[in-house]
Amino acid sequence: MGSRRNLLGMTLCAALAACTSGGASPTPPSVTPSTASVAPAATPTATPMAVSAPPPPAGVTFDERFRAVSDGMYETTQAVTWSSPTDEGVEIVAYGVTDCVEERSDAAPGTTGPCVVEPVELPDALLVPLAAAPAKRGRVEWSWVHSGGCDIGLENDPDGPRYVAVVLAAHGMSGRSRFVIAEPGSWFVPEPGSMPC
């Protein structure tokens, strides 16, 4: 009797030990860090600003003066002025126009007209630089000495290229402005038998 009781007790103890010891505690799932790379935000690209040519000269005037310097010799001075632009780094250039582009071949005797008109569209081949000055100066002039005589149309330096009109343009780092008329010059068809000079 005693042996059976001891065997039963041992059996219960073994069963209880198995229940309480159980398996190993559950291991929480491991988290693997993400290896996906995040692209950096795109840096905006600066768009270069368009730089325009300087504005054309405004408030333009033309002046021509003569003075005697000796017997039979005279000095002619031609000058142009402008009120704007006056920006630093801008230069105003006076050009002589070498052809009377508006002259009409079918004009009747006694007819006259300007050599250049607005808007001025001239090829570089018809332009000769006469003088230049910084825009802030507001004036530029050129002179020459010559003997008296008959010079039909705009006075010209006899030692330089002949021109019939004067235009201005502003020059800067970004280019050249459109042309502006300082002196349009003139053409005319004389009457039969008339003497221009």
Describe this protein with a few key phrases.
197 residues; mainly beta; Immunoglobulin-like; five-stranded antiparallel beta sheet; three-stranded antiparallel beta sheet; disordered N terminus
What's the CATH architecture name of the domain at 61-188?
Answer: Sandwich
Strand content: 25-35%
Radius of gyration: 48 Å
Biggest sheet details: 5 strands, antiparallel
Low-pLDDT runs: 1-25
What is the terminal separation in angstroms? 166 Å
By DSSP, the count of extended strands is 10
**CATH top level class name of the domain at 61-188:** Mainly Beta
Assembly form of the protein: single chain
Instruction: Supply the helix-strand structural class.
Output: mainly beta
CATH topology of the domain at 61-188: Immunoglobulin-like
Q: What's the overall average pLDDT, rounded?
A: 81
- Judging from the principal axes of the Cα atoms, what is the shape? globular
Relative helix content: 10-25%
Number of helices: 1
- Listing every helix as H and every strand as E from the N terminus to the C terminus, the arrangement reads HEEEEEEEEEE
